[in-house]
């Protein structure tokens, strides 16, 4: 249930974990808090309470909250992208791979919706935070690269028309972001199936002309 995250740590409930385990716990807790209550309410104290550790233990692993927030997004983005690409590699044609990239990214499933809510919080902060903006560029280069690589493979095989793969990747990712952002905030004029069809049509337009 989304709401206020308690800052209270129950005495006697703390458990000792190896440093590597604690680090993972902290990153997961930070992501959960951001998704549930927003970045503005995600403090070091709130994250530590979520983990059942002292604030001092948290700052041992992440000396600043900004450092923790950047690493939480980096890890979450890597995890989500790796899961998507694993599904893409199981597909045959370039068109099928593009459709999987799009369908698995749409926020109509819990994991994808969580990833979108996380990114939405970070986008707002990135405007005033150069390090998060830099991380955004890094992760989006990888994400657009997955689209560009798939499109280029389709062009090389003759499945797609002779388009510029990088330009088409920017177009598809931009369309995906814009439509899914509206979907995420509950715009009633943008139902999920309409979004899916618009995105699928954008992929179909890449097909090479058939004689």
List the helices and strands and how they pair.
Blueprint: H1 19-37, H2 44-51, H3 55-61, H4 65-88, H5 94-105, H6 110-126, H7 130-157, H8 165-184, H9 192-204
Helix pairs in contact: 1-2, 1-4, 2-3, 4-5, 4-6, 4-7, 5-7, 5-9, 6-7, 7-8, 8-9
How would you characterize the overall build of this protein?
Helix content is 70%, strand content 0%. It is an all-alpha fold. It folds into two domains: 1-63, Arc Repressor Mutant, subunit A; 73-204, Tetracycline Repressor, domain 2 (Orthogonal Bundle), CATH 1.10.357. The N and C termini lie far apart (55 Å). The relative contact order is 0.10.
Radius of gyration over alpha carbons? Answer: 20 Å
What top-tier CATH class of the largest domain fits best? Mainly Alpha
Count of the separate structural domains: 2
Largest sheet: none
Give the CA-based shape. Answer: elongated
Structural class estimated from helices and strands: mainly alpha
Strand fraction equals: under 5%
Q: Which percent range fits the helix content?
A: over 70%
Low-confidence stretches: 1-14
CATH superfamily of the largest domain: Tetracycline Repressor, domain 2
- Compute the number of strand runs: 0
How would you spell out the order of helices and strands?
Answer: HHHHHHHHH
Q: Whole-Å distance between the termini?
A: 55 Å
CATH topology descriptor of the largest domain: Tetracycline Repressor, domain 2
Average pLDDT metric: 86
Give the oligomer, counting copies of the same chain as homo and different chains as hetero.
single chain
CATH architecture of the largest domain: Orthogonal Bundle
């Amino acid at each position: 249930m989304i709401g206020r995250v308690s800052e209270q740590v129950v005495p006697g409930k703390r458990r000792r974990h190896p440093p590597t385990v604690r680090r993972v716990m902290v990153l997961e807790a930070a992501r959960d808090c951001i998704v549930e209550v927003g970045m503005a309410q995600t403090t070091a104290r709130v994250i530590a309470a979520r983990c059942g550790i002292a604030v001092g233990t948290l700052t041992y692993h992440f000396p600043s909250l900004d450092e923790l927030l950047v690493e939480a997004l980096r890890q979450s983005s890597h995890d989500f992208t790796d899961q998507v690409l694993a599904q893409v590699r199981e597909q045959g044609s370039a068109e099928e791979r593009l459709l999987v990239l799009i369908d698995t990214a749409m926020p109509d499933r819990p994991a994808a919706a969580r990833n979108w809510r996380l990114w939405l919080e970070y986008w707002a902060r990135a405007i005033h935070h150069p390090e998060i903006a830099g991380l955004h560029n890094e992760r989006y280069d990888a994400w657009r690269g997955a689209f560009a690589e798939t499109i280029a493979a389709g062009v090389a095989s003759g499945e797609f028309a002779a388009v510029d793969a990088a330009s088409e990747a920017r177009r598809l990712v931009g369309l995906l972001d814009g439509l899914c952002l509206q979907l995420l905030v509950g715009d009633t004029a943008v139902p999920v199936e309409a979004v899916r069809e618009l995105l699928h049509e954008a992929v179909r337009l890449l097909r090479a002309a058939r004689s």
